[in-house]
Amino acid sequence: MSAEAEQQRDTYSAALVIIGNEILSGRTQDSNTPWIAERLTTQGIILGEVRIISDIEEEIIAAVNMLRTKYDYVFTTGGIGPTHDDITAESIAKAFGVPLERNEEAFRMLEEHYGLEELTPPRAKMSLIPAGARLIPNPVTAAPGFIIENVHVMAGVPRIMHAMLDHVMGMITAGKPILSNTVACSLPEGTVAEDLERLQEKYPQLQMGSYPHYRGGVLGLSLVLRGTDKDALGAATDALIEVIKAHGDEPRALSIRSTD
Amino acid sequence: MSAEAEQQRDTYSAALVIIGNEILSGRTQDSNTPWIAERLTTQGIILGEVRIISDIEEEIIAAVNMLRTKYDYVFTTGGIGPTHDDITAESIAKAFGVPLERNEEAFRMLEEHYGLEELTPPRAKMSLIPAGARLIPNPVTAAPGFIIENVHVMAGVPRIMHAMLDHVMGMITAGKPILSNTVACSLPEGTVAEDLERLQEKYPQLQMGSYPHYRGGVLGLSLVLRGTDKDALGAATDALIEVIKAHGDEPRALSIRSTD
Known about the structure:
- Two copies of one chain form a homodimer.
- Chain A has helices spanning about 20-25, 30-40, 55-70, 90-95, 105-115, 120-125, 160-170, 190-200, 230-245; strands at about 10-20, 45-55, 75, 100, 130, 135, 145-150, 150-155, 180-185, 205-215, 220-225, 255.
- Chain A is about 35% helix and about 25% strand.
- Chain A contains nine helices and twelve strands.
- The first copy, chain A, has two domains: about 5-170, MoaB/Mog-like domain (Molybdenum Cofactor Biosythetic Enzyme, Chain A); about 180-255, ACT domain (Alpha-Beta Plaits).
- In chain A, the strands form three sheets. A six-stranded mixed sheet of chain A has the order 2-1-3-8-7-6, sandwiched between helices. Chain A has a four-stranded antiparallel sheet with strand order 10-11-9-12.
- By secondary structure, the first copy, chain A, is α/β, with parallel strands linked by helices.
- Strand 2 of chain A pairs antiparallel with strand 2 (about 45-55) of chain B.
């Protein structure tokens, strides 16, 4: 499904596949998900699902093939380096049923970065790209990512991924920014649950969530309203503030996110 | 599949389902995955996959039903509170084709915590548990999690989840701790790739990963060896140190994780 070919919509959908045993072992905290989610949100792309999988070929193929038909965009991070466990490009080629072949542009990028002498076989492997894919430049370590149909394959190292995502986001069809208002209070969740449900029914175009948290040992509650309809968001936020006041509390913090 | 009924194995497999729009919107960083992954690892349970999904009934049902047949254990976090978007218990009941019913033990826990007067309908909703499930106590806010077959349903608030996981881990059949050694160096990944692949072929019982990272703007490399076979892990680590020295570098840090 190519979102680019369609007329622009308010929002698009996306899934993220994080390929990396280091996240699954607990060794590394995944910082790519919030970064990508935040970035997509500002461009009207709703992240519908994240899968963290290990570097097993069948797992990568199954996840990518399932998600690329379900979501407008798929993003992957990880597994495009030079070592034996970097099998993303080969797995994506198999998922699309296309050959994995030396990409001359990618080879030139690597040659320029490393010099021909330092371009060892493991490094040259990073020029193998699924046939028909477009490259995503890597300004940090040269080895490119790539785009095939609606699947965007990026590096897992955050610094490199950030640059690749910048490049990708400049190219894809975006929607309206998803705005979100957060109202914090000290009411228990059970106290506002019914009012919140009524508010959700009144504003079905908004997504409303309720998130209890502990800070400094004190239980607090963040109420989050999200959507692309600015007027509805404003009205619902005002109504929510009244709800909190009606229960004898004051909204303690109020963050309004907008691109205006 | 009940792991408890089998003879003890070296390792077991698990999947984690994180139910929460707040992670997918980028609002909240997921800290539950590394916590759970780390804890499982010490008890010989390999986390094979994580899915972060939104609070949509069909998504929860599909994920849980797929994963509970594929992995020994499934853990879920999130969506067991009192608000309209807390639909995990209902979805899990549907996934197993059992009724969602008032659990008297859960009701008593909630009554004791809130008092009958404060036990509003949204709070009483938290006593609705799939038929046949066993409860996981919640020492923080009373609303329990539950276990149905190999699926362990926990709260999403980290502080509550930690207590629930402690309870669960004391009950389930564990394997041998998965040990891991990390050797850091300043060699580029492409330099050690071929040696690492040879080492992986020599020790197929270990999992070997190579993770470049930037710290203070300097590119470094962490090489991670993991497995339950302590002797193989020690020998492979020694061999890896020799590889790094042969390339003219010194291993800069060495963390050995073991339960001894």
